[in-house]
Amino acid sequence: MPALAGLLTGAGLIIAIGPQNIFLLQQGVRRSHTAAVVAVCAVSDVVLIVAGVAGLGALVAAHPGVVTFAKLAGGAYIVVLGLMAAKRCLRSDAAIIANADEAATMSRWAAVATALALTWLNPHVYLDTVLTMGAIATSHGNGKWAFAIGACAASVLWFTSLGHGAGRLSKVFSSPRAWKILDGGVAVVMVGMGAALLLSA
């Protein structure tokens, strides 16, 4: 049961739209270094989950000032990314095509560095993966590591499915209009998430 709870909790927290998922979706659609980006996202999540379950989450929770700072920084970060997505909606079709061509030629190391930055420099990830996941795992007592295994499995399954499944959408996203619709949806969700996080602080 703890493992199943971890799987469902992990899926609920990870599947939400965020900068990490958006970048992976973009790379998957373009079939550009997908495996490398999937590996970075999955391994990073596993490390953060294990750290939270091992006690880092409880340590952070014991310092309310750190939690407040993470909420403010994470909320601001997500709002900015949402506004950037809104700005992308206003680009011309030619600009979107040019950007797609540029992204398709991104080197493997550049893709890995971008994935690392979007994961580890996002304060919101520490609230979700370390603090929240750590607290829920602790509530399962001796089953906390089974919970962690379930949560890690959810991460690996999700990122693998998103990255490699996105390739099937390449025809859909060959149209600049599709990218504008995606960016519009991302903008609304991320600005809303960021605002909620700022208010909760």
TrEMBL record:
Statement: the UniProt record of this protein carries the keyword Membrane: yes
Mode of membrane association: Multi-pass membrane protein
Coiled-coil residue windows: none
Entry's Gene Ontology cellular component terms: plasma membrane
Annotated TM spans: 6-25, 37-60, 66-86, 145-166, 178-199
InterPro entries: LeuE-type
Principal subcellular localization: membrane
Keywords from the named record: Cell membrane, Membrane, Transmembrane, Transmembrane helix
Compartments, as annotated in UniProt: Cell membrane
Alphabetized Pfam families for the sequence: LysE (PF01810)
GO molecular function: amino acid transmembrane transporter activity
Name by which UniProt lists this protein: Lysine exporter protein (LYSE/YGGA)
